[in-house]
Amino acid sequence: MFHGRGWSSYIRSGDEKHPRVTRALLLRVLSYARPYWGHIGGMLTMILLGTGLSLVSPLIFRSLIDQVLPSRDLNRLVLFAVALLCVPILNGGIRVVQRRLNAAVGEGVIYDLRAALFGRLQRMSLRFFTNTRVGELMSRLNNDVVGAQNAISNTIVNIITNLIETVALLLVMGTLEWRLTIISVLIMPLFILAARRLGTTLRDIARRGMDLNAQMNAHMNETLNIGGALLVKLFGRVREEEARFRTRAAGVRDNGVRRALIGSTFFMILGLVSAVGTALVYGLGGWYVIQGTFTVGTIVAFGAYLGQLYSALQGLATAPVDFSTSMVSFERVFEVLDLPYDILEKKEALSLQDIHGGLAFENVTFHYSVDESMLLKGVRRYGKMEDVGAVFSLAGQENGMKSVEGPPPDSAVSEAASQAREVALEGISFEAPAGSLVALVGPSGAGKTTLTYLIPRLYDPTSGVIRLDGHNLRDLTLDSLSSAVGMVTQEAYLFHDSIRTNLLYAHPDASQAELESAARTANIHAFITELPDGYDTIVGERGYRLSGGEKQRIALARVILKDPKILVLDEATSHLDSESEALIQEALKRVMAGRTSIVIAHRLSTILAADLILVLDRGRIVERGTHGELLAHHGLYAQLYDTQFKREKA
């Protein structure tokens, strides 16, 4: 489906105003209709049948007026009356079948596009999600997919229908009266002129509406999730957020009103053009009837055909507007599908089976600077792509906004007191033999969490190599690496579902006994059994119905159920009270046995049990050794021990 083609091949350069509908773009759009050619063929058949039936009624009226009524032929009168009844019945049946086929194509295209988009987004790196608004992604998956579907199931079908009707009507009208047909055709340039004048404006308004809806959706997503709602209430910003939302909703409203006004003006002008053509045809046709050139029935039939012709011409006149709008939706969908992967899996990647858990960092450097080509842009609807802007302040909406993770390179705070820097990790080298425990300590922002994110390839190092059992992580399949590494992050994330479902996410085939064993190890089983619904208790949005310690222990039970060879704990006991922390520390000793454990040290017991302690400062390993060795060195670790751990020991 042309996924290898770059985004730039579908648009003009930034200085041109409107997108160019290229052959490559059209072929790619039509590729999504390929699985439904049978349905589309059936739709075309229904269109031809419907068009043929629509030509019958005017001819019946012509015969009634010119032959049946003057001759008082009752038999033919009854026959024609029955025919006039059967034509709309048959037409209705044809439309039902056509609509059924159309819906199958449209919903099928929506499914294909959404599945492709979701699959693509699932394989994007963490860097992508930290630089992209969730509301923008929801807009692509919902609004733009539906808009793109309209191109295939509605716009293209309508164009074909109107073309067939126009050709058929002109042929029939030409056989009835060629002079009136020529007059009818001469009015067509006025349709084209009206479409070009107002059609462009309508298209731009439609595109602006997509922008405004995306901004409104992003704002709703930011403030209506549990974290955003809590922040709004804690800082007393309910009125401000209501006002901010009204501003965005007002933009959508005003754009909709303008679109309706311009649209009604557009169709009013097309109606006036049709009226001019109709007046000319009936005026000249009436003169021909008076002169005896042709009959009253002919002009009645011709008038009926004329109405159908101008209706088809109106559809063709508005087709460029509808088609361009649909192409914009396709462009926004294709932009996501064309995003390059940040974390790549080699074709010949090794699926590591017998994993021991030996881990080694070799001169690893990493920085958070962003390659803009790998991020989603807020597609500006004239073929120019802008960077995604801020949700609240809308900064970057006009001129684009550079999005960079991490702190700025220049800081007003002195370097001695701040961890602000451009390079997150620099020259990291250490070995963690299989089954060993490595503790990471250092000031906040020193790079401890970033280091742990490199182990499951949430990010790839900027330079250097990370090895698992001697294999470069880049040479392993992502699935085998994922199965080897279990991680409990600082903020435990739980799905808005039952405790059972959240635990089974690590091991879908786990038995109830295995669930309970993991929960006991994490010291959470007793709490779960005391709940009214036990393991079927719903935890709420992001697990907010539970306390921080309860969420953390469920997250730990989940990773225990996964049974990984490498265990990464990012302050996994930070939310526990003293009693729970003591119990879970004992459990962690059992869990860590036989596993390689990388732990961001939060408690003294962790660093005392560590085989190796790495002290990080400003992205570098400044000290390494055991607890006793580092204390004897009287360096940064000794300072951290005095400020963070000595009180705990006392």
Give your account of this protein's structure:
Helix 8 packs parallel to helix 11. The relative contact order is 0.09. It is elongated, with a radius of gyration of 35 Å. The chain folds into two domains: 331 residues, Up-down Bundle (ABC transporter transmembrane region fold); 153 residues, Rossmann fold (3-Layer(aba) Sandwich), CATH 3.40.50. The N terminus is likely disordered. It is an alpha/beta fold and 650 residues long. It is built from 21 helices and twelve strands. Helices cover 59% and strands 10% of the residues. A hairpin with a 5-residue loop joins strand 2 and strand 3. The chain has a six-stranded mixed beta sheet, sandwiched between helices.
List keywords for this structure.
single chain; 650 residues; alpha/beta; Rossmann fold; six-stranded mixed sheet; elongated; disordered N terminus
